[in-house]
Design goal:
Blueprint: E1 8-13, H1 20-29, E2 33-37, H2 43-60, E3 65-69, E4 84-87, E5 92-96, E6 106-108, H3 112-117, E7 123-126, E8 131-138, E9 142-149, E10 151-154, E11 159-160, H4 173-185, E12 189-192, H5 198-208, E13 213-218, H6 227-233, E14 236-240, H7 241-247, H8 253-267, E15 271-274, H9 289-300, E16 305-308, H10 310-313, H11 318-333, H12 338-345, H13 354-368, E17 372-378, H14 383-390, E18 397-401, H15 404-410, E19 416-420, H16 431-441, E20 450-456, E21 465-472
Parallel strand pairs: 1-2, 1-16, 2-3, 3-12, 5-6, 12-13, 13-14, 14-15, 15-16, 17-18, 17-20, 18-19
Antiparallel strand pairs: 4-10, 5-9, 7-8, 7-11, 8-9, 20-21
């Protein structure tokens, strides 16, 4: 197995880490999944990296989840005739649709959707919020602003609109091309950028279907207005703290992170906490104390995955960074109060179903029986396993699946180890023998111990968890 922690590690691959040697070292250090960032690189480069990951994982006998992250709409200003200009606080500055090169008074903003959404009093944040512009008046082709926070500004800098919901698809023509390519490769999950509303996920689902899980990246404050519906329609959720910290007052990010993680726990959807978790290790072999505490807090809250971005993609110490993150996770999960903290943070479950009753009963069986080694879930779609992981049990979960595709996706879920066996789904009579084979091959149990098994029968009917069975090894 890649590591022995319940909380999983997702590492972004890039120039610092996309060789066979580095991928092997990252897996040994504790990586459970890798992220291919389609904001950078060519299709040929991503295919080469993908093939390396699959080959190395197979050689090591492990499953590594592959996530393709779509770039999403990039809202950027045009260029300046002198390369850059200095904007001073209080001065007037215009953004418009003209194609002329910019100067100290104006610059092109070639996005009609922005002007359609803008209104007087809105703020425009340029270059990750380093430049702040207040909208004085606007129409469908231009906006007159006053500089609130000035400084030097150069061409092609990004623009954020924290007060506005844009009528724009999360999938640009580039994203559609990248999406079809990634699905053709066989990636396990698709990260959907710039999600604003539940309908964005429905749009992507029409293309993706069941070929991959959809990870909704929550980057804009508007998602809070439709948060529960977005979570319910997603397969996973990512707290993308980078853009979230630009779009929202930065002091609110920790509160928003906890709120999103909590709601994901309520609906039983896996959640990733991302961005700047070990940023200082881009250039240093040692993290800051604050970064270590940041990772620990996310783990104590019960998130499924913590993610590394530039630290492993372009940093000087990618392997050391993963080792550090794994060490923090291991230390937290070794704390006797860890599971108490995880359960204290949750806010109950959504609704009361047969599946939830069976899953809860399995959790109680684990608490009351002696010599229970682990929990096994039989699931064709992964739903039975997700329901069990939602309970955050004290024992490991082994997800028994009939296909590699579902096993690879479940590999990023809290506390889950995966095992593929088609025979277990051919007949209910095979449950006991397959359970024993699974837990002894990993290994998770020894002779004389018990396995608590949950399953949905008849097999293949999504959401039909209705079986609780105890198996002696």
């Amino acid at each position: 197995m890649p590591n022995d922690t319940r909380t999983k590690i997702l590492a972004t691959l890039g120039p610092s880490s996309n060789t066979e040697e580095k991928v092997s070292a990252l897996i040994d250090a504790g990586v459970d999944g890798v992220r291919l960032n389609f904001s950078h690189g060519t299709h040929e480069e991503h295919q080469k990296t993908y093939e390396i990951v699959r080959r190395v994982a197979k050689e090591k006998g492990v499953r590594i989840t592959v996530v393709a992250d779509m770039q999403g709409p990039k809202l950027r200003i045009g260029t300046f005739k002198d390369g850059k200009v200095l904007l001073k606080r209080g001065q007037k500055f215009t953004l418009d649709m003209k194609k002329d090169l910019g100067d100290e008074t104006r610059v092109t903003l070639p996005h009609k959707e922005i002007f359609e959404a803008l209104k007087e009093g809105d703020k425009l944040l340029v270059n990750d919020g380093n430049i702040v512009l207040n909208v004085l008046k606007c129409n469908k082709e231009s906006a007159l602003t006053e500089v609130e926070v000035g400084g030097f500004i150069s061409g092609h800098k990004g623009v954020n609109l924290p007060n506005s919901s844009l009528n724009i698809s999360p999938l640009t023509p580039k994203d559609l091309d990248d999406l079809h390519f990634a699905l053709g490769l066989g990636v396990d999950c698709i990260c959907l950028s710039f999600v604003q509303r539940a309908s964005d996920i429905k749009e992507a689902r029409k293309i993706i279907g069941k070929k991959a899980w959809i990870i909704s990246k929550l980057e804009k404050p508007q998602v809070l207005d439709d948060l529960d519906n977005i979570i319910k329609l997603s397969d996973m959720v990512m707290v993308a703290r980078g853009d979230l910290g630009v779009e929202c007052p930065i002091v609110t990010v920790p509160v928003l992170q906890k709120r999103i993680v909590s709601r994901c726990r309520v609906f039983g959807k896996p959640v990733i906490v991302a961005t700047q978790m070990l940023e200082s290790m881009m250039a240093s072999p040692m993290p800051t104390r604050a970064e270590v505490s940041d990772i620990a807090n996310a783990v104590y809250d019960g998130c499924d995955v913590v993610m590394l971005s530039g630290e492993t993609a372009a940093g000087s110490y990618p392997v050391e960074t993963v080792k550090t993150m794994h060490g923090v996770i291991h230390q937290v999960e070794s704390d006797a109060k860890y599971l108490e903290s995880v359960h204290h943070f949750e806010q109950g479950t959504c609704g009361s179903t047969e599946a939830q009753a069976i899953t809860h009963a399995a959790g109680e069986a684990v608490k009351t029986m002696d010599k229970v080694a682990c929990i096994a879930t039989f699931s064709v779609s992964g739903a039975t396993t997700l329901a069990m992981a939602q309970e955050r049990p004290k024992l490991p979960i082994i997800a028994i699946n009939p296909t590699e595709e579902i096993a690879h996706r479940l590999n990023l879920v809290w506390g889950v180890k995966t095992y593929v066996d088609q025979q277990g789904f051919e007949s209910f009579d095979n449950i006991e023998s397959v359970s024993r084979s699974a837990v002894t091959s990993v290994p998770m149990a020894k002779k004389g111990e018990y396995i608590v098994v949950t399953a949905g029968y008849p097999f293949g009917r999504v959401g039909s968890t209705n079986v609780l069975h105890i198996v002696k090894v």
